[in-house]
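Q: What changes when manganese (II) ion is included in the input?
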Amino acid sequence: MRYIQNLKKYRNFGDISGSLTELDSARIVILPIPYDKTSTWIKGADNGPLAILEASRALELYDIETDYEVYKHGIYTCQPIVTDSSPEEMVREVKKTVLGLLEDEKFVVTLGGEHSVSIGAAQAYADQFDDISVLQLDAHSDLRDEYEGSRYNHACAMARISEIAPIAQVGIRSMDSSEKSKLDSKNVFFARDICGKDDWIDKAVGCLKPNVYVTIDLDMFDPSIMPATGTPEPGGLDWYSVLRFLKSLSENKNVVGFDIAELCPMKDNKISDFTAAKLVYKFLSYVFKTKGK
Ligand SMILES: [Mn+2]
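A: The predicted holo structure follows.
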């Protein structure tokens, strides 16, 4: 494991400071994992966590919709897990780190990095919680058993996660024919069937166990609002549909943690970075407001 030294540029999520950013008292922990070893098309997901943290400094910390200031629960931003080791080793390191935080009863938000960072985080949650589903929002089914010589390639993320917990998949619109037999059709919500509609939300929430870990690949969004991903796919979800879904999910299930992966920042367009940061904050607002945590 190789750690780089100059990490001072990683600042606190939301630009909050003082006692609200101390590990001991914070309920929420942001874990940046700038890892991009196996991506196959547009590289740069290793810049994702830093871009989200930078953009989060421009967030308004009061959320109008929920009439809530979730940052008052405290948000601690970890130093990033930085490594150029194999995906297998990275996954082990992520699992160990997240497990340590869960033992301290933190709500962990993992920021990728490519989607393989989610494997270790989901493994930690599956170890720590009974009766848990993993909900994936993604353009891609990620169910390949192996890709380019690794079973921990980003294209295999959900294949690995499905070995430890039941999964549901939302927003899917791209896959390989070899993945067809692995799809569980009653737990898959294809983008073409759900875009522009809301009737799928109750069904998708209803197929989940009481505890839910959520893994979000930002390419689930339509590239018109989220162009900065490694593999943009047309025909994705819109902002308010995703928010309605995450709100209903938070009200009806115990969301135990989530990750957001695959932001591949663009040099001259910060819209995607801010959209990703806002998504983190909106989701936290829904989870903590509804549960009164
Ligand atoms: Mn994807």
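Observations recorded in class: Residues 138-140, 217, 219, 231, 262 surround manganese (II) ion (CB under 6 Å).
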